[in-house]
Every structure is written in structure tokens, then in C-alpha cells.
Backbone:
């Protein structure tokens, strides 16, 4: 099942793309983590990579940062190889965990980053301010809370003044307050026109902060579009009807039906255009007792992103 | 199309003094490093080297206390450079090496920074040992104070390579807890705590092939002018080569993986 609500990118050239993934495959031994991903992101977009754990989000992020090499296909960031874009400070990232030394202070950590990027000393205070951690500059990293460490990673990512900022599950392990503060800081920053890509498995985060949502499942993009259009695609409805002796192959061939489930004499047909499914059932089959129910967003998300093996539907 | 501001790569692959300064400050903050590399060798010297008979017995142009002092300076330099090199282990375990991949710092520049740090802290360790020795009854000819110290320091480079190799081999938060005892055994085998011929001919022969032997012999040479220098030099050269190759091999695997 591939739903596409992507705004027309294909007509444009690729020279001015922030990110260009072309038929990218990444295998780790027998495991295919990313399975043929094509993704183009333009400068200024705020994009959510949404999917369950193990969907291939982190692997995709690693390839964008040059931390992993694709097995097949090409990855370009601002027209360059990912590692070159990283070294030039065009792209930076806030990683999920790790990446900090406990016996540095917050300020020293940022200072070291500034030194490595050849930025002036004044950029340190600026980055600390923008990440909202100027008050804890002298604190040892090992004594910082998870939220504070995450904002420190954010400050480090801001230092090269990147064109593209990548956030990998940025709010994992934060409490509600920490999460809110973190997104406030990101939002302020993105208002300045920076391209942002964030991987998340929180539907609300994708919904609230992204212009564009890319659903990933088992290493593939299953939907891509604006948050609202993807939600519309995902949140189809279900027609329940009593139809004895129905064959699932027959039901699947009805226009607009995505999935079919048969329980005894009752059939459940899921699809976007439930009106036409209902019309067909009533006019061309002996179906009766029709009922149309809509799925909630959470359920729709599960349908789009769940592993078939782990799913009961 | 957005025009991107011109961006440059830093010079020398990111190798710079600012990083070394920050890293030094961090090392000094680690109490265990300070105790192991600066205080322990000096304490060992005071415990084992300064009794009356050592002070009065002559050797070369100095006394036995001076002889033991040079051995302890080597021991300190060795601990310091090993722990300097082994920092990469802690940094890999913490994901810091990965974070550094998100900067322009080249892996080779990173290794260079670690080597420089290892040698700086090794220098401080030798200086501390010699300073303690000079006020605790160690007697050496004037030129030997300088030469023995310098040789102990320079030859400790072999252990900076050893530390790097182990650092890449053992990704662990407390790699020095493993390497500390290893170094003690190697020091014993290499004749740093007691001359190798005290334990018989066979032991003395084996000792010549262990990595600490060469460094100790060379460092004490300006004092004793004794022993076959070329064996000691060969020992240091071969072990430095072996440890460097080992470190390079692990380092390459590490960069290939990430």
C-alpha cells in the first residue's frame, strides 16, 4: 500500500534540493533497514519522518549525516556527499542518545564544538542562549537532566549555523515540560527559515510541528504529504455489513477498498471512499445492516506504520 | 534558489590548540587520571627508593635512589601516555567519537590530538617525579637529570601507541582498570621495579623481549652507561611499530564501520 500526497516535486530540478535520496537501500547483513527510499526535501521545509521503532528512520538519518553508507542508491545533501556537507557545517544534527562527555561542562562542550568549526568565541554564548541553557553553562554534563543534555546537543547543532538541522527522536525520555520547552526552542529557530527534518514516533509531534509528514514503515515510505493530507489519507473509514458467503478476493476488487476482513457472516471493508463502497454493496450485492465508522488518528497511524507480522488485522 | 553563504573547512583537519587546551582541562578534572599518572609514581619512588642503603650505594655517577627515580619516571610516563591514548576507549563508549564525526575534525587529526595530549601529560608526570626525586635524596650527574628525563618521556611514545591500540580494542568506560594491572606486570617483567638479572638468567632473557624493558634501559643509560643499547633501541622500535600497526588496524575498522 503506497499512498502519495506529495506536493509536486518531481517537476523541479534537483540542484536546489536540501536533501535528495535516490533509490536508497541499506542492508545490515540479512536485514534490510531501508528498502528503496526516494525522498526530496526543499530548503525551508519542516519534515517529520514518522514511523514505529525499527522502521528505518535512524538508518535514514545516519545516511543523511554520512555516518552510514547506503548499500545502493545515492544520498545528496545540498548537492554534496553527506560527510562533506557535515564538515562544511551545512547540516548538523541532534542525535537520540550519547555523544556527550560527562566530565566536560556545558559551556566547554559548546566551546569545543565552536573550536572545531572555527567559529569565534562569541558564537558559544549565542548558541547557549538560543538553546535556553545559558544559565547552566558551568554545570558538568554528567550532572544535567536528560532534557538539559538534549538542549545542549541542540546548542552544539546550532553552532555551525546549518542550513539543515536533523533531529533524531529528539524528545525521547523527556517529560512533558521538557518536551514543550525543547519544541519551543526548535520552533523559534525554524521560523528563521532553516530546513528541519525530525524523526519521531510521536504522531502529535509530527502533526504539531511539521509542514510535511513522511510515513516510514519497514524501510519504505508509505505516505508522504502535508500533515493534514496524510491524516486524511490515513484516517479512512470502515464499512461493516452482513454478507453471508462473501469471498475476500471479490470484496477486495471493489473500487475504493483498501483492506478486507471477514468474520463469519460479517465483513469489514476499509477504504477512503466509504460512500461508494456502501453504494456498491447495496446495489450489487445482497449485503444488509450497513454501518460506517471512522477510525481515529492513532488507529490510522498504526495501520499505516505497523508491521504486518505484528499486526492482527 | 537560495544562495548558500560560502563555507570553509578548518585547517589541519581540525587539529588545533583550542581543542588540546580544553581536553587537558578535562583530563586534569579526572581525579583518577591525576592520581595514577602524577601522584602514584612519585609515591612508589618515595616508598621503595629512598631508604638509607639506596641513598648511600653508588651506581654510575649517582646513587641507587637516583636509579630507582629514573625507573619510576619511566613508569609514570608510561601510565600517563597509556591513559592518554586509552581515552579513545571511553570516548567511543560514550558515543563522543560519533559526535565528532558530525564536525570537520578528521579522524587522523583526532588521533594526533590524543597523541599530543598523551605526551603532554607524560611530560608532566616525568617532571613531577624528577622534582620529587631532587628533594628526596636522588643523586644523578647533571647531564643525566636532563637526558634520563627526556629519554623516559620520548620513549613513552611506545605506550601512547599501546594506549591507542587498547583504546580501540576495548570499548569500555574504565579501560584503565584493565590496563593498570597489565602495565604493572609489564613493568615488573621489563625490570622497572627490580633489575631483571635478580631473577635468574632465563627470566632476564625473556625480559628483553617485553615492551617495558627497552624504555627502561634507554632512560637509565645516561646514568649507568651499561647494557647493550642496541637491543633496547630495537625493543622500543619493534614494540612501537607493533602497537602503532595494531592501533591503525583497529582505527581503520572503526572508521569503516561508522
Residues:
Amino acid at each position: 500500500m503506497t499512498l502519495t500526497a506529495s506536493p509536486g516535486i518531481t517537476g523541479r530540478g534537483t540542484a536546489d534540493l536540501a536533501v535528495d535520496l535516490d533509490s536508497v537501500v541499506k542492508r545490515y547483513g540479512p536485514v534490510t533497514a531501508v528498502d528503496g527510499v526516494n525522498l526530496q526535501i526543499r530548503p525551508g521545509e519542516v519534515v517529520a519522518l514518522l514511523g514505529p521503532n525499527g522502521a528505518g528512520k535512524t538508518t535514514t538519518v545516519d545516511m543523511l549525516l554520512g555516518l552510514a553508507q547506503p548499500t545502493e542508491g545515492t544520498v545528496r545533501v545540498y548537492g554534496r556527499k553527506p560527510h562533506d556537507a557535515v564538515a562544511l557545517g551545512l547540516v548538523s544534527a541532534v542525535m537520540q542518545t550519547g555523544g556527550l562527555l560527562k566530565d566536560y561542562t556545558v559551556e566547554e562542550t559548546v566551546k569545543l564544538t565552536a573550536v572545531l568549526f572555527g567559529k569565534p568565541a562569541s558564537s558559544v554564548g549565542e548558541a547557549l542562549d538560543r538553546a535556553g541553557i545559558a544559565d547552566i553553562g558551568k554545570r558538568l554534563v554528567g550532572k544535567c537532566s536528560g532534557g538539559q543534555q538534549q538542549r545542549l546537543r541542540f546548542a552544539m547543532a546550532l553552532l555551525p549555523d546549518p542550513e539543515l538541522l536533523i533531529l533524531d527522536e529528539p524528545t525521547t525520555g523527556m517529560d512533558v515540560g521538557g518536551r514543550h520547552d525543547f519544541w519551543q526552542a526548535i520552533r523559534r529557530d525554524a521560523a528563521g527559515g532553516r530546513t528541519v527534518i525530525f524523526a519521531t514516533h510521536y504522531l502529535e509531534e509530527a502533526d504539531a510541528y511539521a509542514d510535511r509528514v513522511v510515513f516510514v514503515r519497514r524501510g519504505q515510505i508509505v505516505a508522504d504529504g502535508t500533515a493534514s493530507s496524510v491524516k486524511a489519507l490515513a484516517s479512512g473509514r470502515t464499512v461493516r455489513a452482513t454478507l453471508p458467503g462473501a469471498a475476500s478476493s471479490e470484496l477486495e476488487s471493489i473500487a475504493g477498498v483498501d483492506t478486507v476482513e471477514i468474520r463469519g457472516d460479517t465483513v469489514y471493508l476499509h477504504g477512503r471512499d466509504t460512500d461508494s463502497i456502501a453504494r456498491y454493496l447495496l446495489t450489487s450485492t445482497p449485503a444488509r445492516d450497513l454501518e460506517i465508522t471512522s477510525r481515529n488518528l492513532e488507529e490510522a497511524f498504526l495501520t499505516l506504520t505497523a508491521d504486518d507480522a505484528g499486526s492482527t488485522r | 534558489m537560495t544562495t548558500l553563504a560560502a563555507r570553509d573547512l578548518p585547517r589541519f583537519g581540525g587539529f588545533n590548540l583550542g581543542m588540546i587546551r580544553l581536553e587537558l582541562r578535562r583530563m586534569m578534572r579526572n581525579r583518577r587520571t591525576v592520581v595514577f599518572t602524577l601522584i602514584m609514581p612519585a609515591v612508589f619512588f618515595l616508598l621503595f627508593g629512598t631508604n638509607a642503603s639506596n641513598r648511600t650505594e653508588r651506581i654510575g655517577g649517582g646513587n641507587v635512589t637516583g636509579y630507582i627515580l629514573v625507573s619510576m619516571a619511566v613508569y609514570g610516563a608510561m601510565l600517563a601516555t597509556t591513559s592518554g591514548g586509552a581515552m579513545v576507549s571511553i570516548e567511543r563508549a560514550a558515543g563522543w567519537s560519533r559526535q565528532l564525526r558530525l564536525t570537520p575534525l578528521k579522524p587522523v587529526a583526532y588521533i594526533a590530538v590524543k597523541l599530543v595530549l598523551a605526551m603532554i601529560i607524560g611530560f608532566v608526570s616525568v617532571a613531577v617525579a624528577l622534582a620529587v626525586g631532587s628533594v628526596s635524596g636522588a643523586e644523578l650527574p647533571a647531564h643525566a637529570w636532563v637526558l634520563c628525563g627526556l629519554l623516559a618521556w620520548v620513549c613513552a611514545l611506545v605506550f601512547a601507541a599501546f594506549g591507542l591500540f587498547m583504546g580501540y580494542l576495548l570499548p569500555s568506560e574504565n579501560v584503565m582498570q584493565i590496563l593498570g594491572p597489565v602495565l604493572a606486570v609489564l613493568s615488573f617483567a621489563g625490570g622497572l621495579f627490580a633489575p631483571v638479572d635478580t631473577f635468574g638468567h632465563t627470566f632476564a632473557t625473556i625480559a628483553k623481549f617485553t615492551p617495558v624493558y627497552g624504555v627502561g634501559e634507554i632512560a637509565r643509560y645516561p646514568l649507568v652507561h651499561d647494557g647493550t643499547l642496541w637491543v633496547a633501541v630495537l625493543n622500543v622500535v619493534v614494540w612501537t611499530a607493533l602497537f602503532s600497526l595494531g592501533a591503525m588496524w583497529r582505527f581503520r575498522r572503526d572508521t569503516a564501520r561508522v
